[in-house]
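User: Hey, my collaborator sent me this sequence without any context and asked if I could get a structure. I don't really work with proteins. Can you help?
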Amino acid sequence: QLVESGGGLVQPGGSLRLSCAASGFTFGSRWMYWVRRAPGKGLEWISSITSSGDHTYYADSVKGRFTISRDNAKNTLYLQMTSLKPEDTAVYFCSKDYRGDDRGQGTQVTVSS
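Assistant: No problem. I've predicted the 3D structure and written it out in structure-token form, which is a compact way to encode the shape of the chain:
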């Protein structure tokens, strides 16, 4: 099970940190992912992290602004988002796969003044 939290309404240029609590599987042995769905669009992969957390990957749309991390002792995945833009408005999901097929229920992020 994956349960996201931390979303909300933020002004452009602001920051948010999303969390994803994982249970029911061996979290520390799996790569993990963040994907998002903007209004009227399909799922978009935005970031991946290796099982150990040593390597991270980002979509060009968020590179340099978002940081993925994990705490395997707490079975928790994070996404630190900075310099948020209105186009970052979306439902954000943590997922066990890059397509988002095995994802949580999501948390809404709205970037608006």
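In plain terms: The mean pLDDT is 97. You can pass these tokens on to your collaborator as they are.
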